[in-house]
């Protein structure tokens, strides 16, 4: 029965009455929905804080590693001819690199050009690279024994050479090139049997380029390499030769401490900390002017997190030239943020870079001597752990959100039951009122008829 029909018998605006009574029953939803929005906003805010703490953990971790402090800059007087790269912990220094020979792979070409359709027949080629055992490449009568087929067989054999068919005005030849450079990769090619239909000399190879090492002098010391890189000559450095320099003279290569990278790592650390501090501060404050509270105003977890980080940032490290961040030019500002005095930090790094590193990265077993970055790495790791601050708080908020959803469902269920009950009651009332009205009309009609008859 449609709700809109209820009330016809009674003359009451039943739809309005039921709607108002159901609205009263649903009043608790307003508070629950406000709480739900607040809980979900808190979950979102904690997710943002967790992300910022993760970024800060990475920045702190970078300052605990040698690579965060041992950055070096490299300059070359002729980078197109020779240069260097840092591969590990390297010392500052100046180097002179004179290149007399560049490493190359052997290239050999078959002696007689033949038409592309020439068939060589079945046979076996033996390719021996350096001191390795020879690799036999066998072609049978069913194989493609043109130069293209032979090249394909060689490339499939993994013999240490790459085969290519080259074409000129006289026909085709087979070109073999060593897969790697260096004098020890020189190779020989022989035909141990077969190839009965091969033209004379078609599988006889002549070296057009010999395999050789790179030869150079580093600060007067003779050095050689099978490649164009010298990776093991100076600890932490790899020198690369690109051109012979005997005509132009030695290339000067300078390796120096790169304080710019160190400063960048420190600034990244400061920025990451400030981002956490700003978000937590704005989320927990009460704005007197607007009389509004932050999403996490009074939240003990957020305030405790901020205080723990601030305590480490403001602590000191024993046993080094610099005890606190302010000693190297990083000061705490009003509101708890950090600010870097670039000039003072430059001066500290120039005077005692090891001391600045110690302030951050000292891994001493003595807690009072541990570097600030080491302590912060441990603290943030604990916060971000599976059973740490964030997961515990998020789990609690998620549980509260679920309970809120259950309460909303209960309110909606009660309201729906009330609406159904009221509609049933008013429907029954309508039926009774309609019956009474009908009876009243009948009696009135009977009285009228009786009066007429009398």
UniProtKB/TrEMBL annotation:
Its chief place of residence is: secreted
Show where the Flagellar hook-associated protein 2 N-terminal domain sits.
10-106
Keywords linked to the UniProt accession: Bacterial flagellum, Cell projection, Cilium, Coiled coil, Flagellum, Secreted
BP-aspect Gene Ontology terms: bacterial-type flagellum-dependent cell motility; cell adhesion
All copies of domain Flagellar hook-associated protein 2 C-terminal, residue ranges: 211-437
User: Where does this protein reside within or beyond the cell?
Assistant: Secreted; Bacterial flagellum
Q: Does the keyword Lyase apply?
A: no
Naming one, the record's GO cellular component terms include:
bacterial-type flagellum filament cap
Instruction: Read off the InterPro entries from this record.
Output: FliD, FliD_C, FliD_N
Q: Does the keyword Amino-acid biosynthesis apply?
A: no
Its family remark reads:
Belongs to the FliD family.
Record note on quaternary structure: Homopentamer.
Q: What does this protein's UniProt record list under function? A: Required for morphogenesis and for the elongation of the flagellar filament by facilitating polymerization of the flagellin monomers at the tip of growing filament. Forms a capping structure, which prevents flagellin subunits (transported through the central channel of the flagellum) from leaking out without polymerization at the distal end.
Q: What is this protein called?
A: Flagellar hook-associated protein 2
